């Protein structure tokens, strides 16, 4: 990364010609995007920021950084606990890729730490209740929204649209996945009727939530957000594949499902949740296969991406069991 070019751009964007970069370090994680810890001296005071930009190989379904910046701004205005969005560079002239800068938030996001530490978020039940409230604030954002016009028109039927999107991705990958196709057909046969659309985070799960001892520090990673059925986010968070070994804690491996839904507070059709949890499992299997393909193609050699592909068979076993019980 061209640190001198970045410093010059930040100085202009912040209005402080004397801005200095005191540290720039890539953060761990971020299989789809890159995050950099950015420490600066601005107006004589130390500031702790995060620079977020694209990974070398991007997923076509991921929003651009300018679009994610808009989503972060809309969420913050709606009262969602997110890092403050600060500056956006929409072109590639500075560091070779678009990026944005946001305030750095302190806390724990690593999922295997989150699910094992019952003190985070004020205790398990309190934590998932707070997460439910965050999700309700997200779902309070409804179309139409001129600032989110890039999301397009809401699908007429979010459930059938989700099935069709996953089928397209399986077809594009070219690798036969008969279990996942069978699961999609089971979903198609029992698809729920459509509901009025809301903004769905579409990756609201343990690992994308930062917690501290008091509660929720930040909801992160908005690159997949879009209009849809609110049960999609509820099912994604509660799906077994996102419990990180703590299967009995049905809300993200953190706490009880009832406490999460009580915190959410909006009407929930419990009969829809198993359908969306099955779709979540299939979706994660498709994403895991795509991540492995990024490594195998040579676009982005990564042990993390390669190991992600090894999750697919276990997810397929879950798909078989869940489809039978649907």
Topology (SSEs and partners):
Blueprint: H1 3-14, E1 20-26, E2 33-42, E3 45-54, H2 65-77, E4 85-89, E5 99-103, H3 111-114, H4 124-139, H5 158-173, H6 178-189, E6 198-200, E7 209-211, E8 216-219, E9 226-228, H7 230-238, H8 257-264, H9 273-296, H10 303-309, H11 312-325
Helix pairs in contact: 4-8, 5-6, 5-9, 6-9, 6-11, 7-9, 9-10, 9-11
Number of domains: 2
How many E-type strands?
Answer: 9
Q: Uncertain spans, ≥5 residues at pLDDT below 50?
A: none
Helical content stands at 40-55%
Order of helices and strands: HEEEHEEHHHHEEEEHHHHH
Task: Provide a count of the helices.
Answer: 11
CATH architecture assignment of the largest domain: Alpha-Beta Complex
Summarize model confidence as the mean pLDDT.
93
CATH superfamily of the largest domain: Aminoglycoside phosphotransferase (APH), C-terminal lobe
Query: What is the radius of gyration?
Result: 20 Å
Globular, elongated, flat, extended or rod-shaped: what is the shape? Answer: globular
Structure class: alpha+beta
Strand order of the largest sheet: 1-2-3-5-4
Q: The CATH topology of the largest domain, please?
A: Aminoglycoside 3'-phosphotransferase, Chain: A, domain 2
Strand content: 15-25%
Pfam family, one: APH
Domain Aminoglycoside phosphotransferase: 24-267
Organism: Falsiroseomonas selenitidurans
Protein name: Phosphotransferase family protein
């Amino acid at each position: 990364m061209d640190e001198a070019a970045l410093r010059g751009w930040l100085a202009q964007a912040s209005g402080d010609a004397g801005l200095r970069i005191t540290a720039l370090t890539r953060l761990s994680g971020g299989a789809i995007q890159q995050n950099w810890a950015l420490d600066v001296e601005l107006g004589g005071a130390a500031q702790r920021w995060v620079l977020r930009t694209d990974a070398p190989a991007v997923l076509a379904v991921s929003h651009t950084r300018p679009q994610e910046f808009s989503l972060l701004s809309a969420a913050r205005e709606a009262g969602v606990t997110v890092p403050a969005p600060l500056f956006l560079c929409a072109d590639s002239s500075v560091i070779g890729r678009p990026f944005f800068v946001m305030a750095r938030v302190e806390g724990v996001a690593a999922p295997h730490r989150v699910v094992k530490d019952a003190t985070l978020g004020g205790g398990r039940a309190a934590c998932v209740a707070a997460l439910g409230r965050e999700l309700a604030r997200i779902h309070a954002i409804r179309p139409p929204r001129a600032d989110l016009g890039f999301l397009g028109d809401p699908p007429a039927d979010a459930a059938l649209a989700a099935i069709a999107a996953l089928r397209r991705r399986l077809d594009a990958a070219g690798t036969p996945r008969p279990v996942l196709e069978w699961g999609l057909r089971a979903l198609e046969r029992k698809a729920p009727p459509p509901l009025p659309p809301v903004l769905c985070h579409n990756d609201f799960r343990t690992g994308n939530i930062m917690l501290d001892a008091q509660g929720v520090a930040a909801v992160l990673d908005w690159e997949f957000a879009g209009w849809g059925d609110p049960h999609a986010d509820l099912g994604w968070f509660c799906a077994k594949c996102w419990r990180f070994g703590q299967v009995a804690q049905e809300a993200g491996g953190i706490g009880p499902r009832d406490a999460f839904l009580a915190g959410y507070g909006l009407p929930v059709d419990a009969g829809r949740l198993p359908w969306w949890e099955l779709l979540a499992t299939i979706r994660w299997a498709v994403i895991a296969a795509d991540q492995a393909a990024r490594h195998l193609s040579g676009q982005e050699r990564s042990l993390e991406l390669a190991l992600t592909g090894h999750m697919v068979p276990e997810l397929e076993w879950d798909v078989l069991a869940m489809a039978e019980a649907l």
